[in-house]
Amino acid sequence: MGKLDGRVVIVTGAARGQGEQEARLFRAEGAEVVLADVLDDQGEALAKEIGARYVHLDVGEEEQWRSAVATAREAYGRVDGLVNNAGILRFNSLVDTPLDEFMQVVRVNQVGCFLGIRTVAPVMEDGGTIVNTASYTALAGMAAVGAYAATKHAILGLTRVAALELARRGIRVNAVCPGAVDTAMSNPARLDPDADPRETAEALDELYRGLVPLGRIGRPEEVARLALFLTCDDSSYVTGQPFVIDGGWLAGVSIV
Ligand code: NAD
């Protein structure tokens, strides 16, 4: 018996990184999975490998959400879960951030999450689940990622309001708040075909050894396991909450 037997889950940003690991784990736990992304070749190939369905979905586009959800329902007859995982990161100090760049981050991270909830929740089965991907930077500031941090704070607001509004249908809405995770977002070397992933992971662990109490960067598989917990019945009495997964980074500072 899988933890998600009989359930149909849409995962955005599923072509790589955390979304990929969520899609893989959910499929292994018995769910029918609809992978959504703008990286069509990677998404198609992954869907084929794990026996899932791929849809092109730019999460900032309302019409594309409608068509992605229609595809999911045509293929599997229902939708029980949504993981709003797609996201982008831009580095700039606030005073140097052009408005266009700020709005680009808002469009994907914040509007994408809003459109996902608004499009999927009305057709979702009662008792369904939504997991929004926030961040460590939803709960703390981080210099040089102001636009990103603002959208991740906003995602917690959306999570709490959606949880309140959808609770009467038994739909639970929670957020994951990862610290640094070894994906292309925190480790661009992952996009370099000549880089050895083990070497870059070791270099990152070294970098985070002094920063993070558990002494290493997180793995996308670890975030996927938290998303699974929030999507399956193991979390049946949990809604409206942010879940930090950061190796203890947010716990505080250590002077020894
Ligand atoms: P990633 O860059 O590997 O994956 C992001 C995915 O989102 C990619 O597949 C990308 O194509 C997709 N995407 C980007 N724009 C999109 C759009 N407009 N429509 C649909 N898909 C789009 O990075 P990741 O770490 O796997 O990121 C997943 C989520 O986790 C993001 O929301 C990110 O902000 C969040 N997060 C990441 C970290 C980290 O350190 N990696 C930490 C905290 C939170």
Q: Count the DSSP helices.
A: 7
Element string (H = helix, E = strand): EHEHEHEHEHEHHE
**Residue-averaged pLDDT:** 97
Shape: globular
Assigned CATH architecture: 3-Layer(aba) Sandwich
Number of domains: 1
Radius of gyration: 18 Å
Distance between the termini: 46 Å
Task: Please tally the β strands and state the result.
Answer: 7
What's the CATH first level?
A: Alpha Beta
- Summarize the amount of helix as a percent range: 40-55%
Structure notes:
The chain is an alpha/beta fold. The chain has a single domain, classed as Rossmann fold (3-Layer(aba) Sandwich), CATH 3.40.50. Strand 4, helix 4 and strand 5 form a beta-alpha-beta unit. The protein is globular. It starts with 7 loop residues before the first strand and ends in an 11-residue tail after the last strand. The model has no long low-confidence stretch (mean pLDDT 97). Nicotinamide-adenine-dinucleotide binds next to helix 1.
